[in-house]
Design brief:
- The protein is mainly beta and 486 residues long.
- It has one domain: Pectate Lyase C-like.
- It is built from four helices and 33 strands.
- The strands form four sheets. It has a 23-stranded parallel sheet that branches.
- A hairpin with a 2-residue loop joins strand 2 and strand 3.
- The structure holds 2-acetamido-2-deoxy-beta-D-glucopyranose (NAG) (6 copies).
- The site of one 2-acetamido-2-deoxy-beta-D-glucopyranose has 4 residues, from strand 31.
Length: 486
Amino acid sequence: MTHRAASTTMEFQENHRSSQILEISLLIVLGLWSLRGAECHQVGILESCTYRSTNCRAHTVSLKDFGGVGDGVTLNTKAFQMAIDHLSQFGSNGGGQLVVPAGKWLTGCFNLTSHFTLYLHRDAVILASQDMNEWPIIAPLPSYGRGRDLPGGRHSNLIMGSNLTDVVITGDNGTIDGQGKIWWDKFEAKELNYTRGFLIEIMYSDQILISNIKLVNSPYWNVHPVYSSNVIVKGITILAPVDVPNTDGINPDSCTNVRIEDCYIVSGDDCIAIKSGWDQYGIAVGMPTQHVIIRRLTCISPHSAVIALGSEMSGGIQDVRVEDITAINSESGVRIKTAIGRGAFVKDIYVKGFTMHTMKYVFWMTGAYGSHPDEHWDPKAIPVIDKISYSNMVAENVTMAGKLEGLHNSPFTGICISNVAIGMAESKKPAWNCTDIQGVSSSVSPQPCVLLSEQRSRSGPCPYPSDKLPIENVEFKECSLQTTHI
Ligand SMILES: *[C@@H]1O[C@H](CO)[C@@H](O)[C@H](O)[C@H]1NC(C)=O
Ligand SMILES: *[C@@H]1O[C@H](CO)[C@@H](O)[C@H](O)[C@H]1NC(C)=O
Ligand SMILES: *[C@@H]1O[C@H](CO)[C@@H](O)[C@H](O)[C@H]1NC(C)=O
Ligand SMILES: *[C@@H]1O[C@H](CO)[C@@H](O)[C@H](O)[C@H]1NC(C)=O
Ligand SMILES: *[C@@H]1O[C@H](CO)[C@@H](O)[C@H](O)[C@H]1NC(C)=O
Ligand SMILES: *[C@@H]1O[C@H](CO)[C@@H](O)[C@H](O)[C@H]1NC(C)=O
């Protein structure tokens, strides 16, 4: 990123406090949000806000200026698109900002522009239309070759950006409500003809910030940056019923330089899933997801992972760092999912500082995930899983400590687990079940499986990089918002 510190720049202070006591860590997380969100002051009927962003904008308009009506009934698709098209002229002249004021703004899908900020007032709700015609069919992602639910194209995404630079979606905790129930019901009844749309998809873009907003009831995944670089997702809340299909939280896909921090996610699928394309389509595109930091995440995902790597990983996944995570009532911690046919690799994955309460698995990886886009996957495309490092983890009420299942004749290698204390729930299952893996462990209880039983030598705990990723150095500026626009 090219942003430089200006005199008004405020750098977010890093906060590495973590606690093994759930209540305390939740309090800390909530405290950080209120400190770091927008700050608004009411003076008579006027309101002024300051907020932090990678870039401030010279030109601001309100959705109301373009005929928007926030009554929850009037369709605002054209108002959104007209406002954004108008602001696109300021790209090389200070940038444009669209304020979504208090109200309920029903809309279909719309596209963003470069050097642009979408700002949601705290009482703004962008309501996704439940009319499927407002979600037109677009081409599948090249690295997937088809829609993920169904062959062919896919529905548009509610908020889309393509081939952009410098895009911000932020606000004072305003809401984007996907009203996903009709999609979940039709998906489960097998009545859909095309794959569901995401709430936010940004593709082929550079310099993206998504912060201080709340996403609820997405039809499908919530936030999907794909084929993009320099992506920050910070301080967002994602809520979906835990029993609805595929409402993944944040899915970086074939992206380089990604920073996800201070987020709270309750989801019917993975809280975060790192991906890079599906079988022969992902191999052909060949774009890895790499140089990722995820920190200070609180996740509740009873049927899925806190952080999944895969299952679509055919462009490769490498250099992922994860720290200070709280998981409650989740199926698994960091889960690696892959299959023959995926090819590529998952390597250099570093995880430290996980506190978990009520988990089915702490460690889970499989080479037998299956799930192929079509018949043409290559049985010789064997994924390589290597250098996976976990340390400093505490878990309570766990059904199974580890289920680690590599590939026959192609074991998962370089697995390292150190300083992990797992409190087991009463269970008839063995604590560990390892097949086709190679690795080491030290200070792990209960006693790990034989394939991990070799003690890591005097070199100490499992490795974690000491350098910072470039995306960690990106700084924020303090922006102010004119009262007349709110
Ligand atoms: C944002 O939302 C979180 C969680 O709902 C809340 O704790 C925090 O105080 C909010 N921040 C602001 C600035 O309103
Ligand atoms: C938005 O962008 C997508 C992808 O570039 C395009 O297919 C679609 O037609 C655009 N929609 C609108 C409303 O311009
Ligand atoms: C967006 O960028 C991709 C990758 O560089 C390119 O293939 C595509 O044609 C671009 N789309 C538009 C609308 O410029
Ligand atoms: C799927 O296509 C069929 C046949 O064209 C149509 O009757 C049905 O309404 C479509 N379903 C949805 C959810 O659009
Ligand atoms: C332990 O986990 C089980 C599910 O495996 C759950 O039903 C139970 O409430 C949990 N106990 C505690 C004390 O959290
Ligand atoms: C261990 O896992 C393997 C491979 O998934 C499975 O075949 C086997 O039944 C499991 N063993 C136990 C004791 O659960």
